[in-house]
Design goal:
Number of strands: 0
Low-confidence stretches: none
Radius of gyration: 20 Å
Structural class: mainly alpha
Order of helices and strands: HHHHHHHHHHHHHHHHHHHHH
Largest sheet: none
Shape: globular
Number of helices: 21
Mean pLDDT: 92
Helix content: over 70%
Distance between the termini: 42 Å
Oligomer: single chain
């Protein structure tokens, strides 16, 4: 992509994200009395925020939508100030953080993490714009900033100070760890930040538990307005498909080539295939996720909407139907054959976020993707207690381990097959 084209693409994508934030703000009064929204935002800000803290339940659906819009607008401002280009990489980051603003992140607990990453960029001489993806996705561990003042029993002001300092420190070390951990799973887990955040969260929670601070996951979930939220998400994804087709001059071209990509990190579909086809794929992935949730009889609440937004966002950065559907099949097999509730919020999140391992299916075939989905569902269910819900990207944490173990085995199998073919000749 030429520089001028990248600039135009970035400007178009900025308008798209700003329009989505505006849509969330405009829809909020239809889901919650406008007079209750300010107090709802305060409840969201004062929540301890570890998994699963559904902000639709805590603050109300209108407040949750505005919280997400504020996160989006805040990140757009950061992108503008740093001069970064909004391509597929940051599109994935923005959609993901917008989704997690429905159940775990807010401006109070996100800003210290982003500030810490910015301080690291300044200290290391790296341009801030080169670390924005890590800065935004590092908010996976933002609940630690909220938990310290609102979940430990500390007085408010000392608790806030400790939480903010902890967030800045975590943000500062996050880029150093993230770049190293990428080599562990070799780019086969799309949510590398979730793996990094999981390691950090386990260390922090272990220290807190050493001082008898109990850190446990919670389960506050919203159960109303399912039809309205389903329609809202469907309209959003259909609009993305429409925008993608419009930007391709009303012709879907190049999608077959995108579907043939493995999705292995880094796979910026905007720069590789063009903004139109990438946005089109985002909408398709969002609809696939929504169809899965409704066919499985799952709820549409804050966490599930976060999963749908993430799957949609990574439609610009690694996910597509061919490499993601095998993962969904694998997770579904586990849920159907095990005592787990396949229709629960946890079941939906396991499937939607399990697509972090889509590059395995893209690289080694659908059977390998199904196997990865099976293993990831099992591993993710046993990691949550280790970090007490402080790491919002629990499936990304699990995906890093699964890819780190499974990929070398798949590569060895592939090498043996090649050797047998060469000997057969």
């Amino acid at each position: 992509m030429e520089k001028s084209t990248i600039a135009d693409t970035s400007r178009n994508n900025t308008l798209l994200i700003a329009a989505m934030a505006t849509l969330f703000i405009c829809l909020s009064p239809f889901l919650q009395d406008i007079g209750d929204i300010p107090s709802g935002l305060l409840r969201i800000t004062a929540a301890s925020s570890q998994l699963l803290s559904d902000y639709f339940h805590i603050g109300g659906p209108g407040a949750a939508l505005i919280n997400s819009a504020v996160i989006l607008l805040m990140e757009l401002l950061v992108i503008h100030l740093t001069g970064a280009m909004l391509t597929g990489t940051l599109m994935a980051g923005l959609f993901t953080t917008a989704g997690f603003a429905f159940f775990g992140t807010n401006p109070l607990n996100s800003l210290p993490i982003i500030t810490g990453v910015a301080l690291y960029a300044c200290a290391s001489g790296i341009p801030c714009k080169d670390l924005l993806m890590q800065a935004f996705l590092a908010t996976a561990i933002a609940p630690i900033v909220s938990f310290i003042p609102f979940g430990t029993g500390l007085p408010l002001l000392p608790g806030l100070l400790c939480g903010i300092v902890a967030g800045i420190l975590i943000g500062f070390v996050f880029p150093m760890l993230s770049s190293r951990f990428l080599t562990f799973h070799q780019g086969y887990s799309l949510y590398n930040s979730g793996f990094t955040a999981g390691i950090l969260a386990m260390v922090v929670v272990s220290i807190l538990r050493l001082f008898h601070v109990q850190v446990t996951n919670i389960n506050l979930l919203y159960g109303d307005h399912t039809a309205e939220l389903t329609v809202m998400m469907a309209v959003l994804f259909l609009l993305l498909i429409g925008v993608g087709i419009y930007r391709m001059n009303w012709r879907v071209k190049g999608y077959v080539q995108l579907l043939q990509s493995t999705g292995r990190l880094p796979s910026d579909y905007v720069t590789q295939f063009g903004e139109g086809i990438a946005i089109f794929n985002m909408g398709v992935m969002g609809l696939i996720g929504l169809a899965y949730v409704r066919l499985m009889g799952g709820p549409v609440n804050g966490p599930v909407m976060g999963g749908l937004m993430t799957l949609c966002g990574f439609g610009a950065f690694g996910n597509h139907p061919r490499n993601s559907i095998p993962i969904l099949i694998g997770v579904t097999l586990v849920q159907v054959l095990s005592p787990a509730d396949a229709h629960s919020t946890g079941g939906m999140l396991s499937a939607l976020f399990g697509t972090t391992l889509a590059p395995i299916a893209g690289s080694f075939g659908a059977p390998a993707g199904i196997l990865a989905g099976v293993i990831n569902a099992a591993v993710a269910a046993n990691l949550l207690q280790g970090h007490g819900g402080i790491n919002l990207y629990n499936n990304g944490f699990a995906g890093g381990f699964v890819a780190g173990v499974l990929v070398p085995l798949l590569e060895s199998r592939h090498e043996l097959q090649q050797q047998r073919r060469s000997h057969g000749k």
